[in-house]
Specification:
The complex is a heterodimer of chains A (439) and B (307). With 439 residues, chain A is α/β, with parallel strands linked by helices. Chain A is built from 15 helices and 18 strands. The longest helix of chain A is centred in the middle third of the chain and has 18 residues. Chain B has 307 residues and is α/β, with parallel strands linked by helices. The termini of chain B are close together. Classes of the chains: A alpha/beta (439), B alpha/beta (307).
Chain lengths: 439, 307
């Protein structure tokens, strides 16, 4: 793909959905890497010479803003055997994602400006997707002293989080939220009471009882969601809750939003698609944190997505090497890859009647962008032309051996799914093209 | 005669007929263990590896005796002091053992699901000799065998399992086995030692031992893992013993002639009074004796030697 980003591109005849702006057949004209017009019959309106324009035929396809993922693990620096910024962003592009927010639980932890700059430099060199680093809340994510949040923000971090090592000390969390106000930066929490969850490796319930595995009760999440909402109310900080997985969390966030608390929330495709039943047979590919829970929880998450309690769909893309997952269940690490499977699993909610097509797109684009104040995630005139062209009808089988990610740890291998990403453009440049596209 | 399964990873994956098949096979091996020459050539030329990642005397010795009485070659492998310390994974360890042409691997491991993980990864048959809190199938089988030997009809039998059910693989395997054969099972212990949704296993839950023992035919006491004190599961050993220890007075609440079982090793004076452990109600040593016959049956049936 030696095409220059300066050659105009016309995406012609597709069904364009830019949530809140347009939902219908239109062309998208891209010049100098930016969206310059969205509307009907742009070929007639452009001042460019027709033969100098690269035309992409998008008839019967959906033309969407490139997706925005608020929660990925790119593993670099420190765990390059699982994923690199290059391979992780290639996976993003293959999944239609053009903006990804990477969590700070690398080695070393992203708690300083230098590491943030390193991540951004690696991302620029790879050129597959925009990477927005998330900085640590506390030094080394140890939950004790605040990291240099001002420096992290200035270096390019878009939010702060201690991710899988959630801040247990409520006073430290209160101060972090207050301090973050100075930089208008959202504070993310992975809500888990580490005492309640200690030793647990799956949801606490009938399946954990039958398998003899130590469970993590839903209350381990609920307790911390409740604390964080109280602290957000106290401090006025912007709170973002990662990967909600329980009935209780969804209910509390709904109530908090009604009261006017500044809170946003995300849910992951695995949490609205699978239950704890997937763990049977000690399937380590179904091991993640928070764990897969029950149908009641799945229904609550879907309802939360439907009524807007949950703003965004995020993947929590968490690559792990094959040998790490081939261990005894308790020893295997938590996490699943998600970038290359999120779109069809989200589209399934449309098929099911939970979301409209436009609201599904919103959960992947404008809503997450708004949660972290990113300028991407739309096709507004003047923004960088990040575009996902997808076929909502094509059914295909998920084959992990074809993933761009370095890791293959998905519970969805062999699933027949509907909806395929055919092409991804980043700033008007094609960064992914499905092999059999536009047959 | 053989089992349709390659492995025995738990009672959960067996049906009632298969359980009975194992028990009936054990009947004939019990007869062998009573002979002067306690050996048959059924597994001659086969290799059985005892792969024990957790310390165990009783179970390992029982499997070793069972294999030897079937004329198999037996290797005991305790990886705690070998390659595991060097970072080798369970699967790699097992594949190395398999490469030495082991026919059957008997696995004891601290992690639930270890036997299933291993069984998926090797061609050898795998017998679960206890995996974390998950299952200990041969213990449940020898318990059933002992009850049958005492001429008890399993269908409708009232059994109380008493103690730390949540952290007990013996409890899980026995609940599965007894309920599959039609027994009425109750679990008795403090709420902190009951796993989530335990009643969905088809058992009745009692927090009061006196109530739980009323009219039962069999009492299975579980070992209190003393190291769990300090994890807020119970207050003191003294109080635990007062609330959930089996005493001669309490034994009178059960049916006259009720049997008392314990998988061992026992904490005398904690969960069970010494006079009960050594008394006429106790079948604790019968359990140990029968363990060998039952394990012979399992080894025999999985080896396909009967085909």
């Amino acid at each position: 793909m030696n095409q220059s980003s300066h050659q105009p591109i016309l995406i012609q005849g597709g069904h364009v959905i830019d949530p809140g702006r347009i939902n219908g057949v239109a062309d998208v004209l891209i010049e100098e890497g930016k969206v310059v017009a969205v509307g009907p019959n742009l070929i007639k309106k452009t001042k460019q010479k027709t033969d100098s324009i690269q035309i992409i035929d998008a008839r019967n396809k959906l033309v969407l803003p490139g997706f925005v993922d608020l929660h990925v693990h790119l593993r670099e620096p420190g765990f390059e055997y699982k994923e690199t910024i290059k391979s992780g962003t290639a996976a993003a592009a293959a999944g239609g994602f053009t903006s990804v927010c990477c969590m700070p639980n690398t080695h070393p932890v992203n708690d300083t400006q230098a590491i943030t700059e390193f991540i951004l430099e690696q991302a620029r060199a790879a050129g597959n997707a925009r990477v927005f680093p998330v900085g640590a809340i506390t030094k080394g994510s140890e939950g004790k002293e605040l990291a240099e949040i001002g420096d992290l923000r200035r270096a390019g971090c878009v939010a702060i989080s201690d991710d899988g090592q959630p801040v247990m000390n409520s006073m430290v969390m209160r101060r972090a939220m207050e301090y973050a106000l100075a930089f208008d930066v959202p504070v993310i929490d992975h809500c888990e009471d580490l005492h309640l969850s200690e030793g647990g490796c799956m949801n606490e319930g009938i399946v954990s009882t039958q398998l003899g595995l130590q469970g993590v009760p839903a209350a381990a999440e609920d307790v911390m969601v409740s604390r964080n909402l109280a602290l957000a109310e106290l401090t006025g900080a912007r709170l973002h809750l990662a990967h909600l997985s329980t009935v209780g969390s969804v209910r509390m966030v709904r109530d908090a939003k009604a009261r006017g608390v500044r809170v946003t929330a995300e849910a992951c495709p695995h949490h609205f698609t699978l239950t704890e039943e997937a763990v049977r047979g000690f399937n380590t590919l179904a091991k993640m944190n928070p764990p897969l829970r029950t149908w009641d929880d799945v229904h609550a998450i879907k309802e939360g997505l439907r009524d807007g309690t949950i703003d965004a769909i995020a993947t929590d893309h968490a690559p792990h090497a094959g040998q790490e997952k081939q261990q005894e269940f308790a020893a295997a690490p938590n996490g699943v890859v998600g970038l290359e499977t999120a779109f069809p699993l989200t589209l399934a909610l449309v098929e099911e009647g939970i979301l409209t097509l436009e609201s599904a797109v919103e959960k992947l684009t404008t809503a997450p962008a708004k949660a972290f104040s990113l300028s991407n995630g739309s096709l507004a005139v003047g923004v960088e032309a990040d575009v996902a062209i997808v076929d909502p009808q094509e059914t295909w089988e998920i084959d992990p051996s074809r993933f761009r990610s370095k890791s293959r740890n998905t519970p969805f291998a062999g699933w027949k799914v509907k909806g395929r990403v055919l092409m991804t453009l980043l700033g008007g440049r094609i960064v992914y093209q499905a092999e059999e596209q536009f047959r | 005669m053989s089992l349709k399964h390659k492995d025995l990873t738990g009672i959960a994956s067996l049906n009632a007929d298969e359980i009975m098949q194992i028990l009936e096979t054990a009947d004939s091996f019990k007869e062998v263990t009573g002979r002067e020459i306690k050996k048959v050539p059924a597994l001659r030329g086969k290799t059985v590896v005892n792969l024990f990642f957790e310390p165990s005397t009783r179970t390992r010795t029982s499997f070793e005796l069972a294999a030897k009485r079937l004329s198999a070659d037996v290797i005991n492998f305790s990886p705690s002091n070998s390659s595991v310390v060097k970072g080798e994974t369970l699967l790699d360890t097992a594949r190395n053992i398999e490469a030495m042409q082991a026919d059957i691997i008997v696995l004891r491991h601290s992690s639930a699901g270890a036997a299933e993980t291993l069984a998926r990864g090797v061609k050898s048959s795998v017998i679960n000799a206890g995996d974390g809190w998950h299952e200990h199938p041969t213990q449940a089988l020898l318990d059933l065998f002992t009850l049958r030997e005492k001429k008890l009809e399993l269908k409708g039998l009232k059994v109380a399992i008493v103690g730390d059910v949540a952290h007990s693989r013996v409890a899980r395997s026995n609940v599965y086995a007894l309920t599959k054969l039609g027994a009425n099972v109750r679990v008795v212990g403090p709420p902190t030692m009951m796993p989530a949704c335990v009643e969905r296993l088809g058992v009745k839950v009692y927090y009061d031992l006196d109530h739980g023992l009323r009219d039962v035919d069999v009492i299975m006491m579980l070992r209190l893992q003393l190291e769990r004190q300090g994890r807020a599961l119970f207050s003191t050993i003294r109080e635990y013993s007062r609330l959930y220890g089996l005493t001669p007075e309490r034994l009178k609440l059960a049916k006259p002639g009720a049997l008392v079982m314990h998988p061992g090793p026992i904490n005398r004076g904690v969960e069970i009074a010494p006079e009960i452990a050594d008394g006429f109600s106790s079948v604790i040593l019968d359990q140990v004796t029968n363990g060998v016959a039952v394990r012979m049956a399992v080894l025999y049936l999985l080896s396909g030697a009967g085909n």
